[in-house]
Design brief:
Largest sheet: 11 strands, mixed
Low-confidence stretches: 1-60
Mean pLDDT: 91
Bound molecules: alpha-D-galactopyranose, zinc ion
Strand content: 15-25%
Structural class: alpha/beta
Number of helices: 22
Number of strands: 26
Helix content: 25-40%
Radius of gyration: 26 Å
Length: about 750
């Protein structure tokens, strides 16, 4: 399956426990406090407050958080007032500011200056623009790195990065942590009661770097401590990693290395634990700032923005666990440009729209369906050294509605004006370089106006999903350590499976292991390379109780220590799947054909880069290899287990077959599709009680017609519709059945 590669280029672009008294206070205080603050800025009943609070008090939020990312630190002060006034005119209700302005906030160590920022907040507030403040720790100033060069990250080759960009920092380093916490604490104290301030973004896109993991001596010491806490004894470490191999037995925790180049690949168990440690290091780094913000600013919400999509460096569920809501950045046009570069040619609109949708569904599911925020949404040509074209007319609106359709409670456009200096001079904003209105300005203004009129009911509705797609960091990281085939990428598999499942236009939650499966009719889980006993038990009981579980090759190969299981594959799920994997084969030439049968009978398919050869032990065969060394052997099976079914797709199916197979399986699992829509049109449903809102999103440049079996009201025009509705190029409709 080579439909999509997300390379590291894309990635480059892109604990303190909270005091218990604060934790007790903050829920109710948070709600009432923030409502009061927003009331003062002209915003009422913020939807994100309800997203957190169990105490909704019956009030429905009346509008989305619709804002813009703004850099007063990069703008002459005499323009701030005009900027604020123009933002208000465009309809924006908030601005996120200050997240890289460390050098201005702390011009030398321990000397803080927030006067300028206070004036900026006041100016925005005068125009009723609420403020989300970013703590500036992603961009330590030169005085800091000159004095403390040890805070700079060491990359996977063992080379120290250089200051001069941003995000060149080690998450473990105590000096970096101390100084990040100091500036965040001073900032928190300075703005705890500032009128207009409603919330915080801690740092910016943690791990956004060409080398997202640090391998320095501080990280090594931190890793050794983490390993000690996890395993307790060296005996346990040695056993779990299998260190007898290549004479790696550790007799002191201080001997444990980090996976830097060492004349041979690292121990897979150690390498997987290092990924987990680095993820923990980043989360615990963030939690230090969170601790202080909770204490000093109990009325403000706190979040952080991640790069978006399940890219895949930090366990985002842990990262957001104590934050108020998930926030991420979304640049579909920029993403399209990168894919174009990597694939040396145009990319189908479906790939872009479903990749963005995957990011949204992942963001929503990370906190169990709570509304999320797009902290940065593309507003124009986007890029650094090279940049994407201006989004087509309608696309900015479409991308905004797509976020709302998937459960967003807020969208901030990146950025207000376009910088005339610095590394992002070509990352275009709502204003052009000369401060005239950008080509997207009117469309954004119109979108905001429409969204404000949507009404509280739809904004409070939930996203309807009967399908779950499992995303598992352990599988991803373990597979990056040992892909088995250079083209086998977990993220690419997830993206293809999401794209194939999304094509049937039934809601999808993108869940992590451990999430309750009972709410779903079908659970899709590609490349479950690492399988814990707990997750296997969850899957077993899901199927036993009538669910359909669908997986593919490499199922259950490894345990959580990244050791290969000593039982025939698929290990812990052999009885559930009703098959034994007779052999497994990476494929480099002569792709075998796949012949479908039974419930999947249809056109022949092709096996891409991997084939698990299946020996049914009770399962029914739905596909066989049609050529090659394993011709005639089972490639796809379905098994009845308890009241449910489990499907093993041993072949790496090409996209057309995968689409057909997943669609047919979802239908047989009873997944309902609200409407048939033409290709290129995305549909999602949000619901509240018996009421359903159908979002139709045309991601293509041609107009489309959708048949609607029941008469509906078009919420955006107020018109009654029956029979069909048409969608213009990049058009959007929100229908509610009348
Ligand atoms: C990211 C960052 C921003 C900015 C934009 C555009 O998502 O969070 O600071 O760099 O992209 O590059
Ligand atoms: Zn480090």
């Amino acid at each position: 399956m080579r439909a999509l590669k997300i390379s590291s280029t894309f990635k480059t672009q892109h604990s303190l426990e909270r005091g218990s008294n604060v934790a007790l206070l903050s829920r109710r205080e948070f709600l009432s406090g923030t409502v009061a603050v927003l009331g003062a800025t002209g915003l009422r009943h913020p939807i994100w407050a309800l997203a957190n609070a169990s105490v909704a008090g019956g009030a429905l939020p009346s509008q989305l958080l619709l804002g813009v990312d703004y850099y007063p630190d990069q703008t002459p002060e005499n323009l701030w007032e005009e900027d604020s006034r123009m933002m208000a005119e465009a309809g924006f209700t908030n601005a996120r500011i200050a997240e890289f302005a460390w050098a201005l906030m702390e011009p030398s160590e321990g000397k803080f200056d927030f006067a300028w920022l206070r004036r900026a907040v006041e100016t925005l507030h005068k125009s009723n623009i609420a403020v989300i403040l970013g703590t500036p720790s992603a961009a330590p100033p030169p005085w800091l790195t000159a004095k403390y060069p040890e805070i700079v990250e060491v990359n996977a080759q063992g080379a120290r990065l250089y200051p001069g960009g941003r995000r060149f920092t080690c998450p473990t380093n105590k000096t970096y942590r101390r100084l990040s916490l100091a500036v965040a604490s001073e900032m928190a104290r300075a703005f705890a009661d500032a009128p207009g301030v409603v919330g915080w973004q801690i740092d910016n896109e943690l791990t956004l770097s060409s080398s997202p993991r640090c391998y320095c001596d501080f990280c090594r010491a931190g890793f050794q401590e983490w390993v000690r806490a996890k395993y307790g004894s060296l005996e346990h470490v040695n056993r779990s990693w299998g260190t007898v191999f290549w004479s790696q037995t550790y007799t002191d925790f201080g001997q444990i290395p980090v996976p830097l180049p060492s004349g041979g690949d690292p121990n897979p168990g150690l390498a997987l634990d290092y990924d987990r440690y680095q993820s923990y290091a980043n989360s615990s780094y963030l939690e230090e700032q969170l601790g202080v913000l909770r204490k000093v600013c109990p009325r403000h919400f706190v979040t952080t923005n991640n790069v978006g999509l399940p890219l895949d460096i930090i366990d985002l569920r842990s990262l957001y666990e104590k934050l108020d809501f998930v926030a991420f950045d979304n640049y579909p046009g920029f993403f399209e440009m990168l894919l174009h570069e990597q694939n040396s040619g145009p990319v189908s609109p479906d790939v872009i729209s479903s990749t963005a949708a995957l990011g949204h569904d992942f963001g929503r599911s990370l906190k169990g369906g709570k509304p999320f925020m797009v902290m940065e949404e593309q507003s124009g040509k986007a890029g650094q050294r090279s940049f994407s074209p201006q989004p087509e007319k309608g696309q900015l609106r479409l991308w905004t509605y797509q976020a709302i359709a998937h459960g967003a409670m807020g969208v901030n456009y990146f950025r207000w004006d376009t910088a005339t200096f610095g590394a992002e001079e070509y990352w275009h904003g709502v204003l052009n370089h000369d401060r005239s209105k950008s080509p997207g300005y009117e469309e954004i203004k119109q979108t905001i106006k429409e969204l404000k009129a949507l009404g509280p009911e739809v904004l409070n509705s939930s996203y309807a999903a009967e399908t779950a797609l499992v995303f598992d960091y352990d599988c991803d990281w373990a597979l990056q350590i040992q892909p088995g085939h250079h083209e086998l990428s977990y993220v690419a598999q997830i993206t293809s499976w999401y794209g194939a499942a999304a094509a049937s236009h039934t809601g999808i939650d993108v869940i992590l292991p451990g999430v309750d499966l009972t709410a779903y009719k079908i659970v899709l889980a590609p490349v479950v390379y690492v399988l814990s006993e707990t997750q296997a038990a969850k899957i077993r009981s899901f199927v036993q109780n009538g669910g359909m579980f669908v997986s593919n090759f490499r199922l259950g190969v490894k345990n959580e220590n990244s050791q290969i299981v000593r039982t025939p594959l698929p290990g812990l799920l052999r009885d559930v799947m009703g098959v034994t994997v007779e052999d497994y084969a990476p494929i480099y030439s002569r792709n075998p054909g796949v012949k479908f049968s039974g419930a999947l009978a249809g056109p022949d398919g092709e096996c891409g880069i991997w084939a698990d050869i299946l020996q049914p032990s009770g399962a029914e065969v739905l596909g066989t290899y049609a050529s090659g060394a394993h011709a005639g052997k089972a490639a796809i099976t379905i098994n009845s287990f308890g009241q449910g079914k489990s499907v093993y797709i041993g072949a790496d199916l090409e996209r057309a077959s995968l689409d057909r197979v997943l669609r047919s399986l979802a239908a047989s699992a009873g997944v309902r599709q609200a409407l048939e829509v033409p290709s290129g049109v995305e549909m999602t449903v949000r619901q509240s009680g018996d009421k359903h809102w159908i979002f139709l999103l045309n991601h293509t440049a041609t107009s489309k017609t959708v048949s609607i079996p029941r008469a509906c009201t078009d919420l955006l025009t107020g018109q009654w519709r029956a029979g069909t509705v048409d969608l213009s190029a990049y058009g959007v409709r929100v229908l509610v059945a009348s």
